[in-house]
Amino acid sequence: MRADVTIKGAGVFGLSVAWAALARGARVRVIDPWGPGAGASGGIVGALAPHVPEAWNEKKAFQLESLLMAKTFWADVEAASARSPGYARTGRLQPLADVEAVALARARAASAAHLWQGRAVWEVVDETAAGPFRPDSPTGLWVRDTLSARLHPRQAVAALAAAVRARGGEVVAAGPEEGAIVHATGAAGLAELVSAKGRPAGQGIKGQAALMRYDAPDAPQLFAGGVHVVPHADGTVAVGSTTEREWHDPAATDAQLDDVVAAARAAVPALRDAPVVERWAGLRPRARSRAPILGPWPGRPGHWIANGGFKIGFGMAPLAGEVLAAAILTGEDRIPEGFRPEASL
């Protein structure tokens, strides 16, 4: 097969571009010598959560559209691959510390009603509405939003790679680079952008996370004690993550992860006796602009970039893949100005 689009990197951004390009009739090859999900996309947390509904901007609007299309996106992936990505729109709870936090949360409820177009809710709830799997709250009140969702990153990437193959795409360790070339290589790709342009496009930020054995498949994700707590469908709960700009070994876990686990146990009574069954660490690509990097590689005709999904990559990926595939194959340009490579170079 001679490819119309070659994608370097089989993380969630690269595979989402491949999936969208296949839907437009392109012949697609994804190349990754380490296999799907070898980098940050092979993590364990999987919190698909929106930014707060205020100070609206193009990044938040893009994220909203992508989160709203996620249910259909992942359902189509599961149907094509016969593999579950672990997706469910289970919502999120956050404790409210004091009366000021309660007042702010109620003000945001009004802005969410407008900005989220009535398609999701941000509200203040008591313990009856919060349910049994919840963090402690000094006020006895929580913010609940119905836009947040969860998936299992490894399972989602495996399902997406299988779906790409099922639709006729290639996902291979090596092969010819033909057609439009998309660079979706995560932290390593950001380093390449730095060296190519002489200016920092971003950096890999180390994150550590853990899986705990606790069965709450239908419970909402939580944000409390400075950590994300994400129940998965397989009887585990993920907790994370650290944010480390300096590190010696990107794959090693240490006492900083112990602190994350301790914070989760302190905040969520249900987890206090839950055992840790896995520890994970890896580098997540954060662009200098703090937004994803999407678009043509400046000065390299025929080359494109899909990178910078730090913390929000899985939430942004459905729309990021669609927008970049459209730009490559039809010239349709829906890339937000703040996402273009020039914003990070």
Automatic annotation (TrEMBL):
<dbReference type="GO" id="GO:0016491">
    <property type="term" value="F:oxidoreductase activity"/>
</dbReference>
<dbReference type="InterPro" id="IPR036188">
    <property type="entry name" value="FAD/NAD-bd_sf"/>
</dbReference>
<dbReference type="InterPro" id="IPR006076">
    <property type="entry name" value="FAD-dep_OxRdtase"/>
</dbReference>
<dbReference type="GO" id="GO:0005737">
    <property type="term" value="C:cytoplasm"/>
</dbReference>
<dbReference type="Pfam" id="PF01266">
    <property type="entry name" value="DAO"/>
</dbReference>
<feature type="domain" description="FAD dependent oxidoreductase">
    <location>
        <begin position="4"/>
        <end position="326"/>
    </location>
</feature>
<keyword id="KW-0560">Oxidoreductase</keyword>
<protein>
    <submittedName>
        <fullName>Glycine/D-amino acid oxidase (Deaminating)</fullName>
    </submittedName>
</protein>
